[in-house]
Specification:
The structure is a single chain. By secondary structure, this protein is α/β, with parallel strands linked by helices. It folds into two domains: 41-234, Alanine racemase (TIM Barrel, Alpha-Beta Barrel); 250-380, Lyase, Ornithine Decarboxylase, Chain A, domain 1. It contains eleven helices and 20 strands. α1 (27-40) packs across α3 (59-69) and α10 crosses α11. The longest helix has 14 residues, at 27-40. The protein is elongated.
């Protein structure tokens, strides 16, 4: 794994953490989420997106868990990630979302992975490589249906469709990506579904994939042959505004270094942005933005920030989150309820990934990928 092995243990081990923060990742919850998404997708194949080090959760353990559960298709961003998936899923189909270039094409043979072709230039380069090396590995073809990111245009897809009538067309998957799937009534979602349906009609016999995590909950019009959930696997709510159907996967905790009193009108933290409105009691916790606790979740006199669970109660962050430390206001806890060495929980114990992300004015995706860069890492449920 990319993390230092000294920071990693399984829940059955008893090593004392040497870092202030601890990130616990529940592999059983990831598996349960994949099974729930597969159930939601009915008879459609359910793959898994494990790019960005499995959204920060670790490609190797996540891939191994999902492959054992029955997942047969994985999506990654680049070749380096594909190598890591292949080490844990020797029989799986692996698609590389960022495509290929002439400089790295031979790696696709080496690890038996398939690029997602995102432009006509890239397709021409891939065809030349395939012809030179007599490679039959195939590739996915991505069509841009309205996101204006990667993918060939609808017109290019229509012009290319006759290719599928040849025996060696090499297209193993037709795909596109929804821009606003988490907003079911967004007009772009309906437009993308309609356009992809029309393009798919030109590619008879080629498996198709459109739905991401939120797309799965749009129902049959978005499902096709393969769904590719990402963030929902790791506990992010794919149905914002409704109850989260996913199990929580991560718990982020920090060790309390000190309990101190702050007089009324005194300030806390860098920039003196948070002022005690009353005689207060705060705890200083050994976790900060270097551990992925986003600085944008800081609190000041003008806005509340994130929260932590201390002694079983939700308590607000006080002041700016710094690199290694964060202060939490525990004034409302009973005297003696918290002491040095206790634990504060920032994700878990009723505080979800989406909750902390909202306090940081971002999304769960970003938060997940930043967590635990130096935390003590524990895997449970594997």
């Amino acid at each position: 794994m990319a993390r230092a092995e000294s920071l990693v243990e399984t829940v059955s081990q008893t090593a004392t953490p040497e870092t202030g923060g601890t990130l616990t990742i529940d592999l059983a919850a990831i598996e349960a989420n994949w099974r729930e998404l597969a159930h939601q997708a009915l008879t459609v194949e359910c793959g898994a997106v494990v790019k960005a080090n499995a959204y920060g959760m670790g490609i190797e353990p996540v891939t191994a868990t999902l492959a054992k559960a029955g997942c047969k298709t994985f999506f990654v961003a680049d070749i380096a990630e594909a190598r890591r998936v292949r080490s844990r899923a020797p029989e799986a189909t692996i698609y590389i979302l960022n495509g290929c270039s002439p400089e790295n094409s031979t790696a696709f043979i080496e690890i038996n992975a398939q690029p997602v072709i995102n432009s006509m230039t890239e397709l021409a380069e891939w065809d030349a490589f395939v012809a030179t090396h007599n490679w039959q590995g195939g590739a996915a073809l991505q069509v841009d249906t309205g996101m204006n990111r990667l993918g060939i245009s609808a017109a290019e897809a229509a012009a290319l469709a006759p290719r599928t009538q040849t025996e060696s067309h090499g297209i193993t998957l037709l795909m596109s990506h929804l821009a606003c799937a988490e907003i079911p009534d967004h007009p772009l979602t309906a437009a993308q579904i309609k356009l992809f349906r029309e393009i798919r009609g030109l590619y008879s016999g080629i498996p198709a994939s459109l739905a991401n995590s939120s797309g799965i909950y749009l129902g049959d019009p978005a499902l096709y042959d393969l769904v590719r959930p990402g963030a929902a696997l790791y506990g992010v709510n794919p149905t914002p505004g409704r109850a989260n159907p996913m199990k929580g996967v991560v718990e982020l905790t920090g060790r309390i270094l000190q309990v101190r009193n702050v007089a009324r009108d005194e300030t806390v933290g860098y920039g003196a942005t948070w002022t005690a409105k009353r005689a207060s009691r705060i705890v200083i916790v050994a976790v900060g933005y270097a551990d992925g606790l986003l600085r944008s979740a800081s609190a000041n006199d003008g806005r509340p920030g994130g929260k932590a669970v201390v002694a079983g109660k939700s308590c607000p962050i006080a002041g700016r989150i710094s690199m290694d430390l964060v202060c939490v206001d525990v004034t409302d806890l009973p005297d003696g309820a918290v002491r040095r060495g206790d634990i504060a929980t920032f994700i878990g114990s009723g505080l979800g990934v989406d909750d902390f992300a909202a306090a940081a004015e971002t999304i769960g995706y970003e938060l997940l990928t930043r967590l635990g860069m130096r935390c003590h890492l524990i895997y449970s449920g594997g």
